[in-house]
Amino acid sequence: MKRLDQVRQLLAEHSASDRIGMTAREVGQVLKLDRSTVSRYLNRLVKETEVEKLPGRPVRFRSVQPPLSQPVEEWVYSPQDRPGSLIGNETEMKEALAALLYPPRGLPLLLEGETGTGKTHLVEQVVHQAREQGKIRSTQPFVTFNCSEYAQNPELLMGQLFGIRKGAFTGAASDRTGLVERADGGILFLDEIHRLPPVGQEMLFHLIDQGVYRRLGEAELERQASIRLIGATTERPDQVLLPTLLRRFAVKLTLPSLGQRERREREKLVDAFFIEEARHMALDIRLDFRCRQAFLEYSCPGNIGQLKGDVQHACAQAFLRHLYEPSPSVTIRREDLPAAVSRVWRASALASPPFPSTLTDGGEKTVYSELLRKEQELSARGWSRHERIRELKQMASQYLKRSAHPADDRRQTGGEQLQEVISHLTRPLTEGQQEALESLIRSLTIEGDQPSRPFPETESLPEEHRKAAHSLAQAVTDQGFSLPEEAWKEIAHLLSAFHESESASAEGVPVLIVTHGESTATSMAQVANALLGDERVHAVDMPLDQPASIALQRVSNRVASLHRGNGILLLVDIGSLTTMGEDISREHGISIHTLSDVTLSMVIHAARKAQTPGWDAQRLMESVRDRFPAPVSTLSPTQRRRVVGVVCPQGEGSIPALKDWVKNNLENKEIDVLSGEWNPHQSDSFDQVLHEWHQSGEIIALVGTHSPPNGNIPFFHAWELLQPDGIRRWKEQLAKTGSPS
Ligand SMILES: Nc1ncnc2c1ncn2[C@@H]1O[C@H](COP(=O)(O)OP(=O)(O)OP(=O)(O)O)[C@@H](O)[C@H]1O
């Protein structure tokens, strides 16, 4: 904490209990600072009317805080409050705006600052203001790209930026437009610009300098583009950028870390973030003195970004409690604070009374409305209160990227006890088998009486496995755990898998699990591999905050490395993952069969059958699908309708006109046009839109006003469709995906 803040805080705490104030010497003694330094700070605080000088000698100083008789015990943030879109950074804002608007096409601007200091936010605000002021037309593109997304693959990174000519490198199956081309006439914001390899930096330099560039693999044709360039980096620019490129950035700004900011600014940030949450919830949020104080003091290495995330974390926890304790507003308590914040929470003379809260949906789709929707859905499905709270807690922590530790999970579900029951009942099983069985039964008990899916049929299973599963399910129920009536069927499949030995073939079909979450896929693969005694199941975890493009790249790399000639079985959970197989299959020409709604027993079955001699991915997929019939969906592009999606960020209002345009310009009336909005601030929002559309058919192209965060489906910028080249590309794309005869 800065010294000025230490002085301010000491006086605030002292004045709260003792109104006679402190002398400069006393303050110096407590803080171990010399008196003249303390006097300087005290006079500054007096000037800023935060501290008052009391009459008499020696001069005593007292914080201008409300007297104890009327303590400010709590802050109330209301949805009617206006949070302010940019806090601090006014000077940087002015300079950045001046750079952006400098004639004729702006001065290249470079922002430097630690992660979370607000570089992206500043750029967004600058562009917003330039548009508001009419200095930049809203039709001029604003393309943003984070170079770290493709940092592991420099070719792809540069291809993404400058475009690719067909055949430029292995896998470049068609010509591809780059972001430079999309940003032509507008603004290109390159975040983490230092991730560009030197040759890419050279190309960028050439573009800024001469206004020309080439697509990758294009030797003859030189293309022109006029862009306003903004770069951002978390590194020291002189250590990571080529001097030639660095010199071309005429304006360089450094954003301060949170620790370097004035306390006033931090207060404004904390208040703004709470107001933002109150607006999302459409409810007042109450926060007591000590909690707010903790937010002002804790060490926050992730800067403003982390501060905002931690405020959201506390709000989500409080909102969750509020769902079960209806009252007119949401109150943040110490137990809601993230650990780092809670650690600096201190008992204070100012106590806060408990406050009640109510239930209202803010309308907008936020973590709160989602929690609320989930709660209603689970109630309607008859989940018990205990189970609902558990589920919602998990959901909240997922949203906040704080997925619960598996050990906690086990404790919450009475897992230890369950484990004991199972190990007692199933002594002959190996440790790995017991673990698998326990996982399965735990997931079945969580589902309660009304499972979300039908159970697999068991006619083909040996009678002894059916009977054993029956008794096991009965025994588990007798121990007080609630299992769905037909849960034994799934257990029977698992028991059958344990006992069936397969003659392994060296080839086999690789099974790859891809699911959302930090470790879900890996855990399933580990259990299955432990059980079957080898490493035939592979996994890719998809943390919720990871961009879809990176996930696709990771899965694609994994598919390429696993492929042995018999295709791949992809087992996925939900969302846009179901479309991945198709994209990757096209990219590598590998036969990929995808099944969704993966469960542990499905993985075990697939792993067991994967080594069957002579089987390929299709045969394996059919076997798994037959065993686990619904709601498993196989994705066969040949039987599906084709869909063009019109997609814009929320609140843009351009969807109806765009949708009409697309419909009127589609020669093939068999293509469906769907539209939807996504929330740029919610990492999986775009995936959800894709997932919904995917139910209706294969998405062959996207049209919108902003590039969506998914680079796998061909995207057409609205303005591009009005250009002759855009229309040509559009027609080509539709023709390319024509229905197979
Ligand atoms: N000055 C500000 N006023 C209000 N909110 C801000 C401010 N600066 C940043 N934020 C908020 O903090 C969060 C993090 O900011 P941002 O993503 O711009 O940081 P960054 O420096 O680009 O981080 P990174 O280097 O990790 O990409 C954003 O949600 C943004 O809305």
UniProtKB/TrEMBL annotation:
The keyword Transferase applies. Residues 86-316 form the Sigma-54 factor interaction domain. PROSITE patterns: PTS_EIIA_TYPE_4, SIGMA54_INTERACT_1, SIGMA54_INTERACT_2, SIGMA54_INTERACT_4. Signal peptide: none annotated. Keywords: ATP-binding, DNA-binding, Nucleotide-binding, Transferase. Residues 508-643 form the PTS EIIA type-4 domain. This is Transcriptional regulator with AAA-type ATPase domain. The lineage of its organism: Bacteria, Bacillati, Bacillota, Bacilli, Bacillales.
